[in-house]
Specification:
- The chain has 2 domains: 202 residues, 3-Layer(aba) Sandwich (Glutaconate Coenzyme A-transferase); 239 residues, Glutaconate Coenzyme A-transferase (3-Layer(aba) Sandwich), CATH 3.40.1080.10.
- The strands form 7 sheets. Strands 1, 2, 3, 6, 10, 11, 12 and 13 form an 8-stranded mixed β-sheet that branches.
- The protein is of the alpha/beta class and 499 residues long.
- It has 14 helices and 27 strands.
- Helices cover 25% and strands 24% of the residues.
- Strand 26, helix 13 and strand 27 form a beta-alpha-beta unit.
C-alpha cells in the first residue's frame, strides 16, 4: 500500500503542541522542507527534541513555533567559522524559550529507552557536571557497586521528521549517512519523511516502511544542509539564515584572518598533533575542524598507526586536505568502516577510545571546562553552544585534550561559570592548549608545561585568571616534516578561519 502524499498533507496531520524530533546531523540532511511547511502552516506551541542539529530548531524558534526545546548542541562550523544558532541563542538570553540542555548521550539513552519500550536507561558519565544540578537528573543505585547512576527517562517523540536520499511508495527509506535517524524512527510514535526521489520499489532500506506513516517527494528538501550523494550544504544559504538574526547574534568567529590568528592556528594544530601517540584511537566531535587537521598531520608524521573515529561515523577516513567542517558526510565515502552516533558513546564507555579532543570557552584552574553559558544557567549573559557529548565522553577516555584558542583571564578563570565537563578518575592525561601555552592537569591543578617562544612567565600571569607558578620550557619549533605536511594538507590556510 502506498503512503506517498504531499508535504502539506503530511504536516497538516501534526497538531499544535506535538513533540517533534528532526532527523539529520549538524549540516547534513536536516528535514528542512518539512520544517518550512510547519512554519507556513503556522503550527504553534511545539516541543522539539534535537540531537546536534541546530538549523531546524533555529528556524522553528525564529517563526515562533516552539514552546519548549531539548537539545545538546546549538552551533555549527562552516567556511565562515563557528556560528551559534542565532534565534535560539537570543530566545535563551532573553528568557523567551523554555529549554532543557543536556549531554547528547543522555538524549540518545532516552530515545533508546523509548525504542526498547522501557521507562528509562542508565546514562553514566556526567555525574560531576553542573547539568546534574540544573536538570535535577534522577539517579538509581547500581546493585553491583552501590553507586548512584544517572538515568535518562524515555523520550518518545510524537513525530520524527526525516529526509532520505531515496524512498519508495510504501515508505521504505534509503539513508546513506544515518547518524541516529534509525533510532529516532524506532523511538517515535509516527515518522513523516521526505525524499529526494521516490521509486516504485526500494531494496535493502535503511528504515523499513513499517515505521513510516507518510513520505513525500522533495528534491532539495534538506537545503541549505546537505544530502549525501545528492548535494553538499549551501554556505550561501546558511549565510542568508544567519543574516535574519538580530545584529551580532551567533556571528561567525573566523571570518577574518590576522597575523595573531595565523600564528595561533598553526601552534594549536602542531601541539594537538603532538598529543597523539602512534596507534592511539582518537575521536572528534562537532565543530572540530582544527583537531581533524591535527589528526591528519599526526598520521602524516609521527603516528601513522593511529585510528581516527569521526562523529559523522567514518572510521579512518582518507583526509587529503583541510576542511572548514569536521562533519562532512563525504568522509564516509573513503574510510575503513562506519559507526553510528550512538555507537561512539558506546565505544567510549567500553574503553575503546584513547583520546578525545574537546573545545571550551572557559577552563578553570582545576580543569573544569565550560561550553554552556556565561553567567547564570537560566538567565545567561551569553549562551554558549552546549555540551554536545563532552560531559559523558570526557568521563570515559584516558587522554583528554581541550583547546582554548585565545588565552585570557576570561577564558582561564579561577572557576568556570558552569562546569560542562570535569576531570574523571578514568582520565590519565588532561591537556589544555592555548595560543600561548600548554597546561597539564597535575595533582588536581593546571600547570604550565610549555609556552610559545617569546612568552614569559610574567606574560602568562598577566593573561591567566588563576595563579601561575611554573614557567615551563619553550615549545619546540615545528620540524621541517611537520611544516611541509601542514602546508600540504592545508595550502589555502583554512585553519586560520577556524579559531
Amino acid at each position: 500500500m502506498s503512503v506517498q502524499t504531499t508535504i502539506a498533507k503530511a504536516i497538516a496531520s501534526i497538531p499544535d503542541g506535538a513533540l517533534i524530533a528532526p532527523g539529520g546531523f549538524q549540516l547534513n540532511r536536516a528535514p528542512m522542507a518539512l520544517v518550512l511547511e510547519i512554519v507556513r502552516q503556522g503550527r504553534r506551541n511545539l516541543r522539539v527534541v534535537s540531537l546536534p542539529n541546530p538549523l531546524p530548531l533555529d528556524v522553528l524558534v525564529a517563526a515562533g513555533s516552539v514552546a519548549e526545546a531539548e537539545f545538546g548542541f546549538l552551533g555549527f562550523q562552516f567556511e565562515d567559522g563557528f556560528v551559534m544558532a542565532p534565534h535560539v541563542k537570543q530566545a535563551i538570553e532573553t528568557q523567551a524559550l523554555t529549554f532543557r540542555e543536556r549531554d547528547v548521550y543522555e538524549i540518545v539513552q532516552g530515545l533508546r529507552a523509548a525504542a526498547y519500550g522501557v521507562p528509562f536507561l542508565p546514562a553514566p558519565g556526567g555525574e560531576a557536571s553542573d547539568y546534574m544540578k540544573v536538570n535535577r537528573t534522577p539517579t538509581l543505585q547500581d546493585p553491583e557497586t552501590g553507586r548512584r547512576i544517572p538515568v535518562a527517562r524515555a523520550i518518545r517523540p510524537d513525530v520524527a521528521l526525516l529526509h532520505a536520499r531515496v524512498a519508495d511508495r510504501k515508505g521504505n527509506l534509503r539513508i546513506d549517512d544515518p547518524y541516529a535517524d534509525d533510532l529516532l524512527a524506532r523511538a517515535s510514535v509516527r515518522v513523516i519523511a521526505t525524499a529526494e526521489t521516490i521509486v516504485e520499489r526500494l531494496e535493502m532500506p535503511t528504515i523499513p516502511h513499517t515505521l513510516v506513516e507518510a513520505v513525500a517527494e522533495a528534491p532539495g528538501g534538506a537545503l541549505p544542509t546537505s544530502c549525501h550523494h545528492s548535494y553538499g550544504y549551501s554556505a550561501q544559504g546558511l549565510r542568508r539564515h544567519i543574516a535574519t538574526a538580530p545584529q551580532g547574534r551567533g556571528r561567525a568567529s573566523g571570518s577574518e584572518a590576522n597575523a595573531q590568528r595565523v600564528g595561533a592556528a598553526d601552534r594549536l594544530v602542531y601541539e594537538m598533533a603532538r598529543c597523539i601517540a602512534d596507534r592511539d584511537v582518537v575521536a572528534t566531535g562537532v565543530a572540530s575542524a582544527l583537531p581533524m587537521l591535527a589528526i591528519a598531520l599526526a598520521r602524516a608524521t609521527h603516528a601513522p598507526g593511529l585510528t581516527y573515529i569521526n562523529c559523522v561515523g567514518a572510521v579512518n577516513p582518507d583526509i587529503r586536505e583541510a576542511s572548514p567542517t569536521s562533519v562532512d558526510p563525504r568522509l564516509l565515502d573513503a574510510c575503513e568502516g562506519t559507526v553510528t552516533l550512538p555507537d561512539m558513546f558506546d565505544l567510549a564507555r567500553r574503553g575503546r577510545i584513547d583520546l578525545m579532543f574537546l573545545g571550551a570557552a572557559q577552563v578553570d584552574a582545576e580543569g573544569r571546562a565550560n561550553s554552556t553559558c556565561i553567567g547564570d544557567f537560566t538567565r545567561p549573559r551569553v549562551k554558549l553552544p552546549g555540551p554536545a557529548g563532552s560531559s559523558s565522553m570526557r568521563a570515559a577516555v584516558p587522554k583528554v585534550v581541550i583547546g582554548v584558542p585565545r588565552h585570557s583571564s576570561r577564558s582561564l578563570p579561577e572557576r568556570v561559570d558552569f562546569a560542562t565537563s570535569v576531570p574523571s578518575p578514568r582520565n590519565q592525561t588532561t591537556v589544555v592548549l592555548t595560543d600561548l601555552t600548554r597546561f597539564d592537569l597535575q595533582h588536581g591543578r593546571l600547570r604550565v608545561v610549555s609556552r610559545r617562544e617569546g612568552v614569559t612567565l610574567a606574560d602568562l600571569r598577566a593573561a591567566t585568571g588563576f595563579p601561575v607558578e611554573e614557567e615551563g620550557h619553550t615549545s619546540p619549533a615545528p620540524t621541517v616534516e611537520e611544516r611541509r605536511a601542514l602546508e600540504r594538507l592545508d595550502p589555502a590556510g583554512i585553519r586560520h578561519r577556524m579559531i
